[in-house]
């Protein structure tokens, strides 16, 4: 049996702490739910009302801190997101089937390609892209945690120099997969119990929180302790 190196004893506690600020329809973190649920629609629906699609994506990014004063997006209108929405409508729908438990070489390659595609579409002039692009990939596809400063600090502490979490690459994704394997019971339980909320009713949809989303919640909140 392989050594369990990355087992955490506080996953349930930390996830409950995150959920304390995610109980009401108007609260900030529910912007993930509305964005993820919206982009699970058919490609035709996404393109049918391009203005709404751009608004949903833009507001998710705004409420998750990506339109602060230092962001180049602050100087853009929602029209700027149109090429990205078109890209999302054209990707292979099996991309939504990727999650941490199937981070094999093929799927890791797909994740990295998607990251690079979005970076080319959205990011100009060498603007910072790691947090922005991974937050988009989390909110739209649910396939990776957002590599923001809180998550990355938390996971650098867990991996103690084995992985820097400063770039989106195969090594960082394999480390996230190893973290999942060592904490599978707690992560699977949370994923099975938590459902994406519907915007209109705030009732559970048929979509569970992905395992990548659960890991994101843990990494983000654990760093705040």
Q: How is this structure best described in words?
A:
The chain is mainly alpha-helical and 225 residues long. It has one domain (11-222). Helices cover 55% and strands 4% of the residues. It is built from 11 helices and 2 strands, in the order ααααααααααββα. It has helices at 11-19, 30-39, 43-48, 50-63, 82-90, 105-122, 130-141, 149-159, 170-182, 184-193, 211-222; strands at 195-197, 204-208. It has a two-stranded antiparallel ribbon. β1 and β2 (204-208) form a beta hairpin. The longest helix has 18 residues, at 105-122. The radius of gyration is 17 Å and the shape is globular. The two termini are 32 Å apart. The mean pLDDT is 94.
Number of structurally distinct domains: 1
Question: Sheet with the most strands?
Answer: 2 strands, antiparallel
Low-confidence stretches: none
Q: Residue share in helices?
A: 55-70%
Strand order, biggest sheet? 1-2
Please state the CA-atom Rg, rounded to the nearest Å. 17 Å
N to C succession of SSEs: HHHHHHHHHHEEH
Structural class, please? mainly alpha
Distance between the termini: 32 Å
Number of contiguous helices: 11
- Arithmetic mean pLDDT: 94
